[in-house]
Amino acid sequence: MGTGGGVGVYKVPTRAAVHPNRPPCLELRPHPLRETQGGKFLRTIASTETQLWAGQESGVRVWNYSDAYESGTGMGSGRKVPRGDEDTAPFYESANTSPTLCLMIDQGTKLVWSGHKDGRIRSWKMDQNFSDGTAFKEGYSWQAHRGPVLSMAISLYGDIWSGSEGGIIRVWAWESVEKSLALSSEERRMAAVLVERSVIDLRTQVTVNGVCNISSSDVKCLLSDNVRAKVWAVGSLSFSLWNARTRELIKVFNIEGQLENRVEMPSSQDQVVEDEMNVKFVAKSKKEKSQGFLQRSRNAIIGAADAVRRVAKGAGAFVEDTKKTEAIVLATDGIIWTGCSNGLLVQWDGNGNRVQDFICHPSPVQCFVTHGSRIWVGYASGLIQTLDLEGNLIAGWVAHNEPVIKLVIGNGFVFSLATHGGIRGWNISSPAPIDNILRTELSERYHMYTRQENVGILIGTWNVGQGRATHGALMSWLGSAVSDVDIVVVGLQEVEMGAGFLAMSAAKETVGLEGSSVGLWWQDHIGKALDEGNTFERVGSRQLAALLIAIWVRKNIRKHVGDLDVAAVACGLGRAIGNKGGVGLRLRVYDRIMCFTNCHFAAHLEAVNRRNADFEHIFRTMTFTRSSSLFHNATTGGSSANQMLRGGNAAAANPDEARPDLGEADLVIFTGDFNYRLFGITYDESRDLVSQRSFDWLREKDQLRAEMKAGKVFQGMREALIRFPPTYKFEKGKPGLGGYDSGEKKRIPAWCDRVLYRDNRTGPAKECSLECPVVASIFHYEACMDVTESDHKPVRCKLNVDIAHVDKSVRRQEFGKILQTNEAIRSSFEALRFVPETNVSTNKISLQNQETFNLKITNRSGEEMVFFQIICEGQSTIKEDEPEPVYRPRASHGFPRWLEVTPAAGMIRPDQVADISVHHEEQSHKLEEFVEGVPQSWWSEDTRDKELVLLVFVRGSCSTDFKTHRVIVRHCFSGNSLRIDPGSNTSRKTDGSIHQRSANLR
């Protein structure tokens, strides 16, 4: 019954060999099943010119971009591939460490810095030999904080800044870090001691008489404003702005841009306040009168229903929670962008003044990255958007099915990391014409990466009427039918009833608790019937009061099944009580999404419209558990994830999400006690037809069949032809067809207990392919009439399911071949290397004390704007006995403290000139430098002349390449006259990539 292929929200989701609604991507690390990632979840990524680094719960891993299109061999040199990384491009892992929370690239020293949960900062060499197959080790580390290192940044002067819990910000001057790096591996312990002793605690510096001017909330982000030599420290609801050279506090302001003067409470009190904010207490009336049991039960149910509604609607939540700052970035025009938990994007100038705000997508902002004239934004919904510098939307697409938590640029791609650990690379110019070329070429090669599988699924449903089954009954129903199936899904109704139990269940749902001892009893005893532990493995379950759904998977396909999510929708009193409603499980099987839903709809013959409404409510509002909390609570195979009960319309929480979760699945199966009855027939007539097994006549009187034919319920779904007697209502303990209700009410027998499904087919003749990846057919549909423990008979249904899926390792290789061989794509990539012509006014500058030189950068293009960045390649102390200066870089190519370059980055419009101030700054006597771990006076080395090399990087608005100009700067302490070579240097083109950090020169 039913033909499949609904319309609207019931429409079959679009599937294709290559996703039609987003640019083709490089799947560096395909989405691993969550159950494979225990202790290995990726938390962050960072990119160098040749590598992508990832921080994970057990250390770090690294990919060489040169291996990006290789087959999925996981780790290099024959090491065992971790589960979940079978299709991942070759990578290398470090030795085990505490969980990595943040990463920072230091091109100046060729190091990657990592911040960890144990409070340590570790260094890793970029250019070490990874090919020997052994886990690589850290360079050296030190204890930076007592708590976790939540954020890190390298300032314009090469200092390492780190943030932790409680508003703690600590700085390590480059001089002390440099000295420690120079020590041998045998002296690492001494190096760590030297660095730890050299710490500058900024919170202590700004605390006077116990009053601290900065927030005690966690330092979520640190941003180095390399345009103006400042550092932004970001808490959830406030910012602190610091001078990068002197490390002095400039201002503290809140998310509205208002200055703050704060008197902080002790951290223990903060925790109490936070706890009070997160818990809503309901006071009891002092004059509460004694009431009868029924009245108290009614009040309990109504109260619980009201509590559930408030939670579902978010009532009582603080407005500030929706405005929390989640991410920050410096755009190439010098504007600071922040993203909030309500989707708000805020622009700030370099002094911390709020410029404007707007929303492009109503989902929490998770991350940013900038390139040229574009801002890339990653959202918790899995969406990526590209915006121009004014905030105008260029494009957007769903990049992942879970939150995008990090974006980085490398090797001509923007790489996105999702909470599940998948990493995808998007062409830096997307959306662009090459996307269509790639999609066409890759789609035509579908036969090379298409794989087909077949699984058998057994669905069982039973309204147990608050009873318990014998082992014999469970064997008759389930145990005897599993020899030819791979997945078993069981739905039970009326596991427990009663006003007190239902009220307690509703109350527990409001705090994320679910399940009961009776529910566990059923799962354990069903497991015994399925030979759980030997043949099948229990994957998960969900209980909502009287409703329970659980799933078991045969062990030989377990590695292909996972990502279990759960959901519940109440349809009882006030859409909040679980005597009626639905519970659901969603999981991936061979990378295809399957949803199983167990329902119990409204009772009574005349309540057809209520039953239809129950289905509609469940289908539209069932929202499965997302994985935003996976970092803290990784779900493993045997446990159910907590899922808050949905009483209202979940779609309202995300207006942009047009389709409900069930509508996005490849296979949807509804089972349960739907309560549809037989109409237009008497009790005696129905009994006669049943005894004669005249099911054809009875089916014509089936309410569900009539409502589906009219398109009022289960739109687009199918059911096998019913060839078994009605399963309701029986007298408990009475075998055979004589057991139908013969009491005073004489309820008309009915097929209340059903199984319906929808696969990817839009019509009956569609074959299994990547365009129609899941094709199901029912080969067994029957009731177990010999089971007498309930007034319903259990029903079972077997489906044969064909699944088409992608070998992502092979597809990635084909992706690489197309990029390397297609002439149109190669021409497009070459065009992206174009950099407009620029000119720098001099290639040599000489400065005496506190003198300033005006360096000019001219954009000679009449049409294209350019973006520039100035770094210090290295500094040398002039010595008479050294014919050639030896230039030593600082961290991240930072400037020495005696030099100010303003702005150090920016945007230049066509035919415009940027004026750059190159200034010698006399340092304060209070400023301390660290030499060999010991504070030295600022003037200790200033009696000698110094020389450094400034590199001016220039790129176009979408350039993947850049040009460099080289400028020599000499500081002459001896008082020699200023010497300037007026000649302009020529541009030297250099391959590579660099992250832009720019000033607004408009």
From TrEMBL:
<comment type="similarity">
    <text>Belongs to the inositol polyphosphate 5-phosphatase family.</text>
</comment>
<dbReference type="InterPro" id="IPR036322">
    <property type="entry name" value="WD40_repeat_dom_sf"/>
</dbReference>
<dbReference type="InterPro" id="IPR046985">
    <property type="entry name" value="IP5"/>
</dbReference>
<dbReference type="Pfam" id="PF23755">
    <property type="entry name" value="Ig-like_IP5PC_F"/>
</dbReference>
<dbReference type="InterPro" id="IPR056455">
    <property type="entry name" value="Ig-like_IP5PC_F"/>
</dbReference>
<dbReference type="GO" id="GO:0004439">
    <property type="term" value="F:phosphatidylinositol-4,5-bisphosphate 5-phosphatase activity"/>
</dbReference>
<dbReference type="GO" id="GO:0046872">
    <property type="term" value="F:metal ion binding"/>
</dbReference>
<keyword id="KW-0853">WD repeat</keyword>
<keyword id="KW-0460">Magnesium</keyword>
<feature type="domain" description="Inositol polyphosphate-related phosphatase">
    <location>
        <begin position="453"/>
        <end position="807"/>
    </location>
</feature>
<protein>
    <submittedName>
        <fullName>Type i inositol 1 4 5-trisphosphate 5-phosphatase 12</fullName>
    </submittedName>
</protein>
<dbReference type="InterPro" id="IPR015943">
    <property type="entry name" value="WD40/YVTN_repeat-like_dom_sf"/>
</dbReference>
<keyword id="KW-0378">Hydrolase</keyword>
<keyword id="KW-0479">Metal-binding</keyword>
<dbReference type="Pfam" id="PF22669">
    <property type="entry name" value="Exo_endo_phos2"/>
</dbReference>
<keyword id="KW-0677">Repeat</keyword>
<dbReference type="GO" id="GO:0046856">
    <property type="term" value="P:phosphatidylinositol dephosphorylation"/>
</dbReference>
<dbReference type="InterPro" id="IPR000300">
    <property type="entry name" value="IPPc"/>
</dbReference>
<dbReference type="InterPro" id="IPR056454">
    <property type="entry name" value="Beta-prop_IP5PC_F"/>
</dbReference>
<dbReference type="InterPro" id="IPR036691">
    <property type="entry name" value="Endo/exonu/phosph_ase_sf"/>
</dbReference>
<keyword id="KW-1017">Isopeptide bond</keyword>
<keyword id="KW-0832">Ubl conjugation</keyword>
<dbReference type="GO" id="GO:0009846">
    <property type="term" value="P:pollen germination"/>
</dbReference>
<dbReference type="InterPro" id="IPR001680">
    <property type="entry name" value="WD40_rpt"/>
</dbReference>
<feature type="region of interest" description="Disordered">
    <location>
        <begin position="979"/>
        <end position="1002"/>
    </location>
</feature>
<dbReference type="Pfam" id="PF23754">
    <property type="entry name" value="Beta-prop_IP5PC_F"/>
</dbReference>
